[in-house]
Structures are given as C-alpha cells and as structure tokens.
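I am still getting used to backbone structure tokens and would like to learn alongside you. Label the sequence line and the structure token line clearly, so we can match residues to local backbone shapes. Go ahead whenever you are ready, and we will take it from there:
>
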Amino acid sequence: MKRKILIPVLALGLLFTTASFKNDFFEIAKQIEIFTTLFKELNMNYVDENTPATLMDKAIKGMLADLDPYTVFWNEQDVEDARINNSGVYTGIGAAVKSDPEKIIVVEPYKGYPADQAGLKAGDEIIKIGDVTISDFEDNAGELLKGSTDSSVEITYVRQGKTFTTTIKRGAIDVKAVPFYRLIDQNIGYIVLSKFNRKTTQETKAALNDLKAQGAEKIILDLRGNPGGLLREAINVVNLFVPKGEVITTTKSVVKKYNKVYKTTNEPVDTEIPLVVLVNGRSASASEIVSGGLQDLDRAVIIGARSFGKGLVQRPKKLTYGTQLKVTISRYYTPSGRCIQALDYWNRDENGDPVRVDPKEYNKFKTKGGRTVFDGGGILPDIELETSKFSPITTALLKDQAIFDYATQYYYSNDLNDIGQFRFTDSDFENFIQFLKSNDFEYETDTEKEFEDALRRADDDLLENDITVAYNELMRAIDVSKEKQLYTKKAEIKTLLSDEILKRYFYRDGLYEYHVKNSPEILEAVSVLKDENKYRRILN
C-alpha cells in the first residue's frame, strides 16, 4: 500500500512548490492517484505484453497533445540535442537528415564535412548504419550517425535505385549562425543570420565590423528561414543597432514571475547606419523579436512577407532521470505592444484547429516615431513581396517533399557547372507540373474538407444520393482551380525550386551568391537603401 501512495505524495511535494496551482491541490492529488492506480492495474492485467516506458511515453504525449505544439517532453537524448543545437558545435557526419521509419534521407550535406567528403548527396536514402538496418530499429536511427571525433561508421544507402556502401569518419561540426556575409553594390553589407545560438551575437558583430571596415555604409540583415533560438541573443543582435536601455520585448503570463521586460544592456556598434531586414513565413520566434523590435523602434525597414507568428515563450524544467519538460510559460510582445503569436491554441474551431485572428480584427499600434503598425501574429513587413510568401499550396508542396524530390530528379538529369548560367525556365516549371501529376501529388484545400464534412452530414440525413452528382462536379471544379493555383503561385514556387536545386550543385555558399544577384527581396532591399528619400519616408 505504501508503494502505491509514494508517487502521488512525491508529485504533490513538487506541485506545492509551484504557485500557479493555487488551491487545486486536492484535485491534483486525486487525479494523480487515479492515474497511478490505473497505470499499475494496466501493467499487471492487460492481455498482451506491454512496456511501462512505452505506455508512459504515450500517456505523456497524450496529455500534452491538446496544448500548444511547443510544450513537449524531452527524454535524455532530446535534452542533449537541445544543448548541442544551442551551442552550435557537435560531433557527427555533418549533414541535415530526415528520419523515416524505413530510412534516413540526406537533406543537405554540409560542404567540406565528413558526409560531403564521403560523397553523400541530398536525396540519398540511408538504409543501414553499421550492422543496424533502419527498418528494424525502433528508436531514432539518426542518433546512430553521431559519435566521438575520428570514429568511423559504415553506412549503406540507396541513390537513384542503386545501393552503395561507404565509410564516414565523424568529426566536429561547427554550425555557423552567420554562414555568409559579403559586400555588395560597393557600399552595402549583406549578412545572412540563420539561427540564434550562443555564437549569434559574436558572429553577427564580427561580420558587421568587417563589412564596415570594407566600406559598408548600409546593411541588409537576412532573417528569411531563421527559426529562432535563444532570446538573449536576439536582444543582443538588436542591441548592435540601437542604444543601451531600449525595450526590445516583454513577456506576459498568468504566472507573475514570468512577466518580464527585456532591454538592451550593451553599447551598440552603429545606431545610424541604414538597415533593411528580410523576413518570410519561415522567420520565427527570435527572428520576430529582432525584426519586430527594429520595426517598432523605427530603426529598420522590413521587407518580405509576414513572419511565422511564433510568439510563445518556452522554458525547460528539469524532471527526474535527466528528462525535461519544455513548457510554454508566456507570450512575446514587441516594444509597441503587439503580440507576436499568430495561432490561438486555447480557442479552437469545430475541427479542433487553433484559431487565427481575422484580419478585420487586427489592432493598430504605434511605433516609437508614431508610425501605424498592426498585430495579427508575426511581423508584417513595411514592403511585402509575393516571392516571400508561403501560400497553402506552396506549404503543401514543401510538406509533401515535392520540391525536394523534384530537385533530386533535376540534379541527376541536368549538368550545371556555372551558377551564372542557371535559370529555372517556364519549360522547367511545366516539367515540375508533370512531375507532380506522375507522382500523384494531392493537396486538400479547406474548401474540400468542408464539402466532405457536409457530404458526411448529408449521408446522416439520408440526402447523400440526391447531392452526390453535384458534389462530384464541385470536386472536379476544385481540382481545376487547384491546378490554376500552381500557376497563380508560380513566382514563389519557382523561387523555392531554384533554391533547392542550386544547393545540390553549389552548396549554400553558391546559393547565397546567387541570391545576392537574383533574389527579389535583396534587389528590393538594395533599391530602398539606394533611395535615401524612400528609406526615410518609410520610417517616418
């Protein structure tokens, strides 16, 4: 009997230290005891063999599933992965990979690192690591690629239907926060900031000072695709361009101790140099703190598309046995008071999806200089460009790996030695459309989902036979409309296809060099910086 009570008593001891639970202690104790007895009886009596750890893992995930997607349980390996990600240095093969149940797909080998030296290419499918066949491995097989420096691992992979084997010597991988910067157009410095780890401010400051020494009199800071990271690094990056003591972001929570104001604390590098920041739909979290802070302080012109809208703050809380709970504790707000968060996970629609604020309900806010800006989640640029946007069909193409898979096919079907000769033509785009058809790419619109729900309800009301013909005609009309969307969103799709293809031939360095000369966002930024009157007019 003592053993059964032990878990709830220990849990209660922890819960009593957390103020947010207030007077719910009896209810908490009751629910924990119910769960404890259920867990015990299930393990002792269930008809088939089961593993307590697996059951508990599913129970934890189920408990967190209806909250926001950022509140998650981390096992010991997840904790280590987070530490490595924040540090910017790890030991491995030097490649971005995606794990599937049957294989590991190489997404991008990093130039000069072990995977690249061993000849791996994006699109290669790793099916065996050492003696372990991926399809037989229950845990995350990607962990098998990690190991100590100079240790070797043999892998078997499939490329274009043929099987190969190679040996890779692991090495130290330095993940740069600033993977590229250079002087463009004689006096404009261009800096790519790809993530916010512990080296972000140091690398950004070094790039800024180097560019200024080369003659840069204006700066473009590229945050497109930057998913965020460490909050303090975001504050410090803004601090490079604004004075000490400026409010950059505030956090608000029902737990009072998490209500904080974050200000710049260092002396800046340059508070006068004209600045443009590039963002898109994949710029999130810390990227939005930087772009939102600079916009609200009238310190930079923002160009691109509305950012992702990830304004929820997480903090890791240590649990037992080296595990952690990464829990959402508050929301981010820009200096003007705008909430960065786009989706409301606590108020959901009839399908259980989080609610997004209707544009008609956006609220006005004022920047430091009196300009009008709006909330609605994410950061809305001062200049919006179509090529930066991610429409639903484009998002579906990315999620389905259609763009990635087409780039793989393109790479093995076309020779390309000079990046200056690359153009993704209309003919190439038509080939991509045919590729989608031959690979049965399917994209379900919200309209289709609603019509399907209506048809199911009609079946319940015994009306299905009467409306089936009309329903099928509607579906055919939607299919025609969806194909038209591919052409309507041609500009943004071509941009993503070009980027993925160029990485195959010239790595990221080549991609960035191509962007400098061809990216619509960079060209627009250069145009704005060259037109001092336009730049000032936007900020004033």
Remarks:
- The longest helix spans residues 490-518.
- The longest strand covers residues 324-333.
- The domain at 89-174 is CATH 2.30.42.10 (Pdz3 Domain).
